[in-house]
Design brief:
Layout (H helix, E strand, L loop, with lengths): L1 H41 L4 H9 L8 H11 L4 H7 L6 H13 L6 H7 L5 H43 L5 H31 L5 H6 L6 H8 L1 H20 L4 H11 L3 H15 L4 H4 L8 H10 L5 H60 L1
């Protein structure tokens, strides 16, 4: 039994570490890959042979996915095709941006937009996210198991004992006994919700999120767009990619379409299609962009950037930093509110169970003393 507990504990700890470190490990791999691409491009060398040469070093810290990409290139695939066949190597947005840069023919111009996506959240945000995962793997399962055991073994014995002695149940005990199964279902629902948030934090890397990401009913993408902090991150990624493509001289309609695809979000892609449709009807880009961001801020920023001297990306860099700061602030606030509410709810639930059980025990003791 002890060996089984140790094995289960080790498995949970390993999964906990893998789940939390996955986004950071993918971000580190992406940064290494971007540095490699930038170095190769600055030297004027072709990208594919350089990747094959780097794979010959057999450095395990790069990750096995890098060698899978190299294997695809060795089989004759171009860089974009290899990344498409190994979607777990890079974050989805970076993957699409690199492929868009390859289509543009100027891969070096999309690297700044890729780095915008790979910005690391502040320590406070990462700490709260880790705290949420800790609640997911420790607190909630323990409380669910406790309530289940009480419902299955303890509560029936208490009811049987109280009925045999003719002792009426205390009102709090009656409430607890009646609603224990419902409490268990509520805790299970919170467990599933928290698991979903952890999967979204992982960037949709789990099989469940990828299964939910389909175009007709994009459930996961709709949820990701409705999260205020994630919406700002998607808007920042779309804006950065659009700026890079416009600075590269790509036609506006094609730039908007590729920028929408680079977000890897169906809601963003559909909004980008509305912008393309407005451009086809003769609207200016700063007017057509209203179809993507109804607040009007993107339109105002883009209109001012069009009159700048350093290009769209340089003109929008300050706005991108502001979006990033607001997104991290909202993410931290949501993490604090959710985890605090979860702790309070579970504390109240455990308190009610304890009060109900001990209240009935006190009444049974009083009845026993009175009978003697």
């Amino acid at each position: 039994m002890a060996a089984l507990v140790l094995v289960l504990g080790y498995s949970l700890a390993r999964d906990y570490y893998f789940s939390l470190s996955l986004p950071m490990r993918r971000r580190d791999r992406a940064r290494f890959f971007l540095d490699l691409l930038e170095t190769v491009i600055q030297r004027g060398q072709p990208v594919e042979p350089a990747i094959l040469s780097a794979a010959e070093n057999e450095d395990r810290s790069i990750g096995v996915e890098f060698y899978r990409v190299a294997a695809q290139i060795e089989d004759g695939a171009r860089l974009g095709e290899a990344l498409a066949r190994v979607p777990t190597f890079l974050p989805p947005q970076v993957n699409e941006m690199i492929r868009a840069g390859e289509k543009l023919g100027e891969l070096n111009k999309v690297l700044p937009a890729c780095r915008e996506v790979l910005r690391v959240p502040p320590d406070s945000v990462r700490t709260m996210t880790h705290y949420m995962a800790g609640l997911l793997l420790i607190v909630i399962p323990v409380i669910m198991g406790l309530i289940f055991l009480l419902t299955l073994f303890v509560v029936p014995k208490y009811k049987e004992l109280a009925g045999g002695m003719g002792v009426p149940a205390w009102p709090v005990a009656q409430f607890v006994f009646r609603h224990l199964p419902g409490m268990l279902w509520v805790d299970a629902a919170l467990f599933c919700a928290l698991a979903g948030f952890v999967n979204l934090y992982n960037g949709g890397s789990s099989g469940l999120i990828r299964w939910l990401r389909f175009r007709r009913v994009p459930v996961a993408d709709w949820i990701a767009w409705r999260l205020p902090w994630n919406q700002k991150k998607l808007l920042r990624g779309f804006s950065a990619m659009l700026a890079v493509l416009l600075d590269g001289g790509m036609p506006e309609a094609e730039a908007v379409r590729l920028a929408g695809e680079s977000t890897v979000n169906e809601i963003c892609r559909r909004r980008a299609e509305r912008v393309v449709a407005a451009l086809a009807q003769g609207a200016r880009l700063d007017e057509a962009i209203r179809a993507f961001d109804a607040t009007g801020e993107f339109r105002w920023r883009l209109a001012n950037a069009a009159h700048g001297q350093g290009g769209f990306l340089d003109a929008l860099r300050g706005w991108h930093a502001a979006l990033e700061a607001r997104a991290f602030q909202q993410e931290e606030t949501a993490a604090h509110a959710f985890t605090s509410g979860l702790v309070i709810f579970n504390g109240v639930m455990v308190g009610l169970v304890a009060v109900g059980m001990f209240g009935l025990l006190v009444m049974l003791l009083k009845a026993t003393i009175a009978a003697t």
